[in-house]
Amino acid sequence: MRVLLAAAALAGLVSLPLAGHAELITYTESVVASGSLAGRPFTNAVVTITGSADTSQVEPSFAGYAVLTPGARVTVAGVGTFIFNDPIQFFVSPMFDVASVSDLTGPLGLDIVDTQNSLFETYSLITAFGPVTGPPVVNAGDPFSTSGGALILNSAGDSTFTATEP
């Protein structure tokens, strides 16, 4: 089953930014997973996806809040660190109790990894938060373009979302 929460987040990209004081926040999703990066297979490795954005860029949507993170990167322990080639968005949904990181390429985009936890019911991406751990959702087998080649996740254990201020 494909995770398409990114479609719900896309609706937020045409909305007005949230009002308030702007600060830089770094969003991180980490998961122990198996798959490949740049053609190099990995098993039970820590995969960390990180992106930063100004909180004034957070957008509301009908299902939650979203922010684009230019220059987002992925690090796989033992393999390397690469920059995503496509627009990467971090998204939280109080409606679905999930935080996700999504590749916005294609008509709807796809979530790379989601963290499910009821603590997301009260979070809107504009403050430091977490770490929050929960069951993951991944789009197993789907390639996500990076500067070194495709990131493909085949399976994953619990994932963790964190938002930190510098």
Question: Can you walk through the features of this model?
Answer:
The protein is mainly β and 166 residues long. It has one domain (5-164). Helix content is 5%, strand content 56%. The protein is built from one helix and 13 strands; from the N terminus they run H-E-E-E-E-E-E-E-E-E-E-E-E-E. Strands 1, 2, 5, 6, 10, 12 and 13 form a seven-stranded antiparallel beta sheet that branches. A six-stranded antiparallel beta sheet has the order 3-4-7-8-9-11. Strand 12 (143-146) and strand 13 form a beta hairpin. The longest helix has 8 residues, at 5-12. It is globular and about 40 Å long. The N and C termini lie far apart (36 Å). The relative contact order is 0.27. The model is unreliable at 1-19 (pLDDT under 50).
Helical percent range?
under 10%
Mean pLDDT: 87
Q: Give the helix/strand class.
A: mainly beta
SSE string, helices as H and strands as E: HEEEEEEEEEEEEE
Q: Separation of termini?
A: 36 Å
Give a quick summary of the entry:
Helices cover 5% and strands 56% of the residues. With 166 residues, the protein is mainly β.
